[in-house]
Amino acid sequence: MSIPHQPAPAPRTATGTLDTAFDRAFGHPAGLLGRLGGWVMARGNAGTEHRVVDLARLEPDEIVLVVGPGPGIGLDAAGRLAGEVIGVEPSAEMRALCLERCGNRVELRDGSAARTGSADASADVVLTVNNVELWEDRAAAFAELFRVLRPGGRMLLSAHEKGLPVSRHELADEAAAAGFTDLQTWTWQPPGFAPLAAQLKAVKPA
Predict the structure, then answer these.
(1) Which of 3, 7, 53, 159 is 20 to 30 Å from the Cα of 61, by its Cα?
(2) 203: β partners
(3) Beta bridge partners of 125
């Protein structure tokens, strides 16, 4: 009886190995590389995180949903201003870093932009920094964020412009298709060596 030929597995290329390592550090942080990526993100993204929180003009009685807080810089800043702050983060390593940084000032959940675990019209503000690049289904994510915002609620989004899957104007069009209005988009140069940020503000109609 002949044994069917089994093709040899494709050798892992240097590029493939680097891509995997980069994803484990920054895209889907996991293990030691994930914690190292969190350390890098905490320093490289801090200026943008604080900028977005400042632009949100959070009030002490507001409920804020932070999507993809990473190591928790913006989450911590929001937690010091708003009445209730919820971080939705799929990476266990990043949730651990958020807990170390924020303590009991915030609530942390395993989730994503398309799966927040929040009730309808339960948040006043949605903040997300350098996370939209990871949304597998942006239409579903924008629909989810629209759903969880209260009428009159606002969303602020920021991402490295060079890493966006579409232009910031197309991103605004996608948010509009989900029902958001009063859309504004612009670029902002963070301090230090961080790349140019594309930013978007939108409102759920009252």
Answers:
(1) 159
(2) 154, 181
(3) 64, 154
Q: Which two tokens stand for residue 111?
A: 């989730």
pTM of the model: 0.81
The number of residues in the chain equals 206
Domains of the chain (ranges; CATH) run: 45-203 (3.40.50.150)
> Which residues partner with 201 through β-bridges?
156, 184
Q: Encoding tokens for residue 153?
A: 């609620």
Between CA 167 and CA 138 the distance in angstroms is 13
Residue 52, number of CB atoms within 10 A of its CB: 24
CB atoms inside a 10 Å sphere around CB 160: 19
Task: Convert the pLDDT of each residue in 124-133 to its tens digit.
Answer: 999 999 999 9
Q: Is 151 exposed, middle or buried (0-12, 13-18, 19+ CB in 10 A)?
A: exposed
Rounded to the nearest 5°, which phi and psi values hold at 148? -80, -15
pLDDT, tens digit, for every residue of 103-154?
999 999 999 999 999 999 999 999 999 999 999 999 999 999 999 999 999 9
Cβ-based neighbour number of residue 18 at 10 Å: 10
Tokens of 193: 């060596």
Closest C-alpha among 123, 125, 76 to residue 99: 76
